[in-house]
């Protein structure tokens, strides 16, 4: 069987719209700066709010180590406030070192895109709103970094891929050591791509100890397995003709102690090269009746248009229709979100 480029299996490189400016390349070593600045104005219920949409900057150093081995490393910071005058706006997003070989695979260590992201990234495509219904970015059980779901903290990964039956099979195995309330956590992500079709599956699990003060009376053990799984499928390439993607995720205790949950997302898009039109639906439900949290907790549909003025400049508009929810707010009333209109722009570095 013939091996393909290992880079195709690395979670960080599966994300859409990866962009960087190479500042140095001597044929053996290279240094690049990447990231983006994204700002959007949101209008909802008569109010207008201007904010950043996940802006970040990263620095990458890659080297050819010889004998088929290659080094890749990256540090990335996000900006919590780019439109005001807040202090301490930088926060850590990524920081890892990886060594790869075309035959032996890749080993990496640090804060990096997770094995879970191999499958959950399928619907995380439009600029306007990220994928929030697939448990990728954590829940009441902890942050996605500690849980190893989005960008995994202190993670060790092994990545490899193989050509199989005319397509390519890739996988990422991940371990995070015990720390604080989190026991050892193990994750696996795998995908098979054949032509324009890609299917993927991921699992992440491990024990978490909850604060006793948040335990409902019927729960006697505060240390439980917090696990989540996701399956996804996508066809085509976002922004290039027709593309379709769907994902379904289910979890135990991630939304809270004793709370099971499931979520799904689907996106259909068509890109002409200049414009990309997309429609996406996101839904998340808690199906355990604890603390009045049973039912739909996240439920909306949005449409967006992205205008590729240049390869590094993409203005966009979006409109979200919020559907009925079942969960209760802090006052004991059924929660309700307002429809939202947004206009913004992204500049890639």
TrEMBL record:
Endpoints of the signal sequence: 1-20
Membrane topology: Multi-pass membrane protein
Alphabetized UniProt keyword annotations: Membrane, Signal
Subcellular location: Cell outer membrane
Primary location recorded for the protein, binned into one broad class: membrane
Xref: Gene3D superfamilies: Porin (2.40.160.10)
Top-rank taxon, per record: Bacteria
Alphabetical list of PANTHER family matching this protein: OUTER MEMBRANE PORIN F-RELATED, PROTEIN YDDL-RELATED
Name listed for the protein in its UniProt record: Porin
Taxonomic source organism: Ferrimonas pelagia
């Amino acid at each position: 069987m013939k091996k393909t480029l290992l880079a195709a299996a690395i979670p960080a490189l599966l994300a859409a719209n990866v962009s960087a400016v190479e500042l140095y390349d001597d044929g053996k070593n290279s240094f690049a700066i990447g990231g983006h600045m994204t700002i959007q104005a949101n209008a909802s219920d008569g109010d207008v709010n201007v904010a950043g949409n996940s802006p970040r900057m990263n620095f990458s150093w890659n080297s050819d180590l010889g004998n088929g081995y290659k080094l890749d490393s990256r540090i990335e910071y996000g900006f919590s406030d780019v439109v005001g005058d807040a202090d301490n706006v930088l926060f850590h997003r990524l920081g890892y070192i990886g060594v790869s070989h075309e035959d032996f695979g890749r080993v990496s260590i640090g804060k990096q895109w997770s094995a879970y992201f191999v499958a959950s990234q399928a619907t995380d495509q439009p600029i306007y709103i990220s994928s929030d219904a697939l448990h990728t970015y954590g829940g009441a059980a902890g942050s996605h970094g500690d849980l190893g779901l989005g960008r995994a903290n202190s993670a060790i990964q092994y990545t490899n891929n193989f050509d199989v039956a005319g397509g390519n099979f890739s996988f990422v195995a991940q371990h995070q050591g015990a720390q604080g309330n989190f026991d050892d956590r193990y994750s696996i992500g795998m995908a098979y791509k054949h032509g324009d079709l890609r299917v993927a599956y991921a699992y992440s699990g491990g024990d978490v100890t909850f604060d006793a003060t948040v335990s409902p009376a019927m729960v006697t053990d505060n240390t439980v397995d917090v696990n989540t799984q996701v399956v996804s499928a996508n066809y085509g390439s976002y922004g290039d003709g027709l593309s379709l993607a769907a994902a379904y995720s289910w979890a135990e205790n991630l939304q809270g102690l004793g709370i099971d949950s499931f979520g799904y997302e689907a996106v259909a898009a068509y890109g002409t090269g200049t414009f990309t039109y997309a429609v996406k639906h996101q839904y998340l439900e808690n199906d355990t009746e604890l603390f009045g949290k049973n039912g739909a907790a996240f439920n909306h549909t949005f449409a967006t248009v992205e205008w590729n003025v240049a390869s590094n400049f993409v203005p966009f508009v979006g409109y979200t229709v919020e559907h009925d929810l079942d969960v209760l707010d802090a006052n004991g009333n059924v929660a309700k979100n307002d429809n939202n209109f947004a206009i913004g722009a992204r500049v890639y570095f």
